[in-house]
Design goal:
The complex is a heterodimer of chains A (about 110) and B (about 250). Chain A has about 110 residues and is mostly helical. Chain A contains 3 helices and no strands. Chain A has helices spanning about 5-20, 25-50, 70-100. In chain A, helix 2 (about 25-50) runs antiparallel to helix 3 (about 70-100). Chain A is elongated and about 65 Å long. With about 250 residues, chain B is mostly helical. Chain B is built from 9 helices and no strands. The longest helix of chain B has 26 residues, at about 65-90. In chain B, helix 3 (about 55-65) crosses helix 9 and helix 4 (about 65-90) runs antiparallel to helix 8. The chains are: A mainly alpha (about 110), B mainly alpha (about 250). At the A-B interface, helix 1, helix 2 and helix 3 of A face helix 1, helix 2, helix 3, helix 4 and helix 6 of B.
Chain lengths: ~110, ~250
């Protein structure tokens, strides 16, 4: 009966975005993006949650036992794994930037170089 | 744009977005009182329809299998992009695994660390395989089990060393697993398209509910995803670790 989980999802989204905007390090920026992404997990799982319900797995309990929404769980679980590899890709980009330009500060990457 | 103006602009935007989000919460079901209907429908019919007991797996690899195909290709593209980026500096030629890190001394590992590490590796591999294989019955699946199998390889690196890590996960195996996993999923889809006229329709016999061989196509797709995720994750670890190593001609004693 509370809206706290939804507020937390919104807060995670905005605080991660604030981190990206004010970031002075590409690795920090990648972590901030992961924070933004985690807000979607909180939102999804909060929507599918049901008080006093079990997991949507009917191995040991009969069908019809109250269970939470499996659709949002499936969305969150693929998203987590995909998010991890996307984070790895961004870190590889950061490593490449550091190798080429000797800096990780996004503010010093404004000028284009051929 | 100075940082100050940027933060001011963000503050204004955040206020608007925050207000919109708060307004949107109004339309959501109160927390803990999920209203459905999709989750409830799946929970009610999937056990009978697909002979599986894990509903999240049924959603991922059957009802929403087409979306998962797309998600798996995001993963594949991310791993491929990472390998391209990091291999660019080194060239495509496979070099002999260099034992020495370029910028730091790697202390030799003690026997206790090796012993416990290998024991944990064995347990982790077992758990990973179990989690992948029982996707349609109990919590777990190809995505989760694949990452656990990736962790097992990382444990070899942490407890024994880089050379052994490369020995248990040679590049041909990683590239092969990654490609085979991604390809198998699409091929299953094309196979069902030819067999039934519908992409990723569950055409295999469904088997007995709660047995390992049940769910028709779900375990097949799940296995492909497990292969892809495990291969992809270990490939990511390998590419990052390679970057910290010296090329083999500059070997230290």
């Amino acid at each position: 009966m509370t809206i706290l989980p939804y507020v937390i999802a919104g807060w995670l989204f905005l605080v991660g975005l604030y981190g990206i905007i004010t970031s002075r390090n590409l690795i920090h920026m990648t972590v901030c993006l992961a924070v933004v992404q985690s807000s979607t997990y909180v939102l999804l799982l909060a929507i599918g949650y049901r008080v006093d319900a079990g997991p949507p797995i009917f191995m040991e309990v009969p069908v019809g036992t109250p269970a939470v929404d499996p659709v949002v769980q499936a969305l969150a679980l693929t998203d987590i794994v995909v998010g991890a590899t996307v984070t790895a890709l961004l870190l590889a980009l950061a490593a490449q930037v550091h190798k080429r330009l000797g800096t990780l500060d996004p503010r010093r990457l404004c000028t284009m170089r051929g | 744009m100075t940082p100050r103006i940027r933060v001011c602009l963000f503050g204004f935007g955040a206020l608007v977005v925050g207000a919109l989000l708060l307004g949107g919460v109004d339309g959501l079901p109160p927390f803990g009182h999920y209203r459905g209907p999709y989750g409830d429908v799946i929970n009610a019919v999937a056990v009978d329809e697909r002979h599986v007991t894990n509903m999240a797996t049924a959603v991922n690899f059957d009802y929403r299998a087409f979306d998962t195909l797309g998600e798996e290709y995001i993963l594949f593209a991310a791993v491929t992009g990472l390998a391209l980026l990091l291999r660019q500096g080194r060239g495509e030629i496979e070099d002999e695994p260099a034992e020495y890190a370029a910028d730091r001394r790697v202390p030799p590992h003690g026997d206790a660390l090796r012993g416990i590490g290998l024991l944990m590796t064995a347990v982790t591999v077992l758990v990973g395989v179990y989690v992948v294989l029982h996707a349609h019955l109990t919590p777990g699946g190809g995505f989760q089990g694949g990452t656990i199998l990736g962790t097992a390889c990382l444990l070899v690196y942490l407890s024994v060393g880089y050379r052994e890590f490369r020995a248990v996960s040679p590049r041909w195996l990683l590239d092969g697993a990654d490609a085979a996993g991604a390809g198998a999923y699409a091929l299953v889809g094309i196979g069902t398209l030819l067999a039934s006229g519908t992409f990723l329709l569950n055409v295999l016999p469904l088997g007995t509910t709660k047995s390992l061989f049940s769910g028709g196509m779900i375990p097949v797709i799940n296995l492909a995803v497990g292969l892809e995720v495990a291969g992809g994750f270990i490939l990511v670890f390998t590419e990052f670790l390679k970057d910290t190593r010296k090329p083999s001609e500059a070997k230290r004693p």
